[in-house]
Predict the 3D structure of the following.
Amino acid sequence: MGTPETILSVKDLRVRFRTLDGAVEAVKGINIHVKAGETVAVVGESGSGKSQTMMAAMSLLASNGEATGHVDYRGRNLLTLSKSDLNKVRGAKISMIFQEPMTSLDPLYSIGNQLMEPIRKHRGLNAAEAREEALKLLRLVHIPDPERRMKSYPHEMSGGQRQRVMIAMALANDPDILIADEPTTALDVTIQAQILVLLAELQRKLGMAIVFITHDLGIVRRFADRVYVMRQGEVVEEGDAEALFASPQHAYTKMLLAAEPTGTKAPPPANSPVLLEGRNVEVTFKIGGGFLAGEPLLLRAVDRISIRLQRNQTIGIVGESGSGKSTLGRALLRLLPSDGLIRFGDRDISGADRQAMRPLRREMQLVFQDPFGSLSPRMTVGQVITEGLLVHEPNLSGKQRDQRAVEALLEVGLDPNSRNRYPHEFSGGQRQRIAIARAMILKPKLVVLDEPTSALDRSVQKQIVELLRKLQADHGLSYLFISHDLAVVRAMADYIIVMKQGKIVEEGPTEEIFSNPQAAYTQTLMNAAIDVTRFRLSA
Amino acid sequence: MLRYIFRRLLTAIPTLFVIVTMAFFLIRVAPGGPFNQERGLSPEIRANLEAQFGLDDPLWLQYAHYLGNLLRGNFGPSYNLPDFTVTELFAKGLPISVQLGASALILALLLGSVLGTIAALNQNKLGDYTVIALATAGSTIPTFVIAPVIQLVFGLTWKLLPIGGWGDGAFINKVGPVLTLALPQIAIVARLMRGSMIESLRSHHIRTARALGLSDWSVVVKHALRGAILPIVSFTGPAAAALLTGSVIVETIFSIPGVGRYFVDAALNRDYTLVMGTVVVIALFTIVFNLIVDVMYAVVDPRVRYD
């Protein structure tokens, strides 16, 4: 390839957003360039401005955003192009795929219709020719049965398939540059690996440059030729991927590289009492049915699963989306009707109704994945975390409740003075600490953690994992830790259950599962996770 | 889909039955009867009249008779307009009310959607504020104010429109009533459209469309508008049922011989059969238009499937 020319150069780019609290500068004068055919990664945690940089380059900023500086593509500044000139570059020369494969396609039009639109727009082909091109593209991204898929709608496809369609649309006009904004973050780990393999293959075939926007250093390490590390709107370090990983210069880069959760959890003593036991637990969902509508469809989400959780133990429940892991967690807490036997402590709670469960609820708490949706935006943090006390310890005075709130916040590492503020004033990691404080204030024995770290940055994940381990050691808690993230599970759990389609495919002590997985599916999961960190994109 | 429509029509039968039954007994609970008000009606004549219409039968028998007639499509005679059957009254008045209502509805949907879209595309700018101001005015000024103002300005002062009357359905006679009916609906549609369009424009697939370099026209009309139209579709069902069955105020002020006045007049005069006829017609319109809305949903949104 010789010395490839620079085709995109971002010079002194600034992105500002007008907000009610005044202007916020999301990108503070950065310089980035991309050469033909290379793979560049822009790395950073949420809020670093990595996505906004590329959104600005594509003129896709929200309406209150404004970009200044230069984004030169082959000598023309994209920021000053007229709309119609810009639309000759977007989707043709530079195209983009996004983090949200589930919502990035128009739900109202068929795949074929959506694929043909940019082809016809940029190449002026007629419908029949565009259809042929669209079919070729679907084959290129390995969509099975492309003829039939042309007529499918997005909701009839899985997340991985939708991302393949997005890639096909982005590549429809043989672009110079493909910008991939967290293209695999929302996907299951086995699908992630497939999509990355696909991108690598397509780059070899078509020779476009790829700009990866990602927080995932595994992807960066194995895929990128050059890396830009961004933090708070600035590029703090840049360079060759290998050199950067071998000897990071900036403290922030070092911190990012060290942010993988580490350590392991020792199993509880063998004589530790059993806190929660499920035998042949089954959850069946009814789909459809009703008056004059015929027989409902039965879906077995959890299929005869048995589980024993001891005091001080953490069982990691691992599986991809749709495996039934969250449903199992909810059924064990009697938040969903289920068949089979469930014992909590020495009580049989299999048939317990809401009334009977209420006194037990304080001993079994739940922390959710979404730190933004699970805290009421209209209550102060103090009100959020003490709400459970009103139900379970109604005799406490307001002052005592406040004292407990202070203790709980201190315990999760938050400033107790923050209890009069509202959830939206906190970051994702802080909100997850609030959610944990809300569970801990009731002094529970069992906490079900449903993907508690999935929505968080790696460095924050590590802190939350450490906090959860400390709380467990201090209070002798038992955790059910539901996650698809093998690195986090390895650091948290002493026993692992691998689930697929409602069934347990493998279970055992963590180290055994990781060092010697038996089931083919477990091996696939492990390999996919490792693939992401081993695969090399451009030769 | 056809099975679904058939099933829905089937479930409409018990619904209608319940509505008819409740209306039948409720209006009888109200004091007085169709021949009570007129002064100088001697008890003998009244008894004769009541006997003629079967009003001296026990209530359950009257109910059974009414249901029997209804099944044969016979709504009975009007008590207060004895020269006409209820069916004849509707045959004459309903087409007029439907014409006015449908025109107003179509005008409201077209104009309201366009205004709402303009507002959404200019969110928090002058165009947006103008539309919001107009829409707020439109939905707060009552029809009984708008109608006389239209009569005054366009009829009396500028002499562009007739002040009232149907004029055998001449176009010029319809302008005033249609405008009056449409204005508040335009306001509602514009506001609904603005809200759903803003949301639609923010969705991820619109970002995709822009990133693919599609033209503004395609982004807005093909992709954003179709998604934004769904709330309007669900608004249209009940709105159509209400508009097409006539408006008391508009028909009274403009002297239009539609069916909108019947409901109030008949209820006040205890014209039992006419009240029942109106109830059945409104119920039918409501059921049918709600069904049409649900079918439209499936047409616009491929994710909606009935089977």
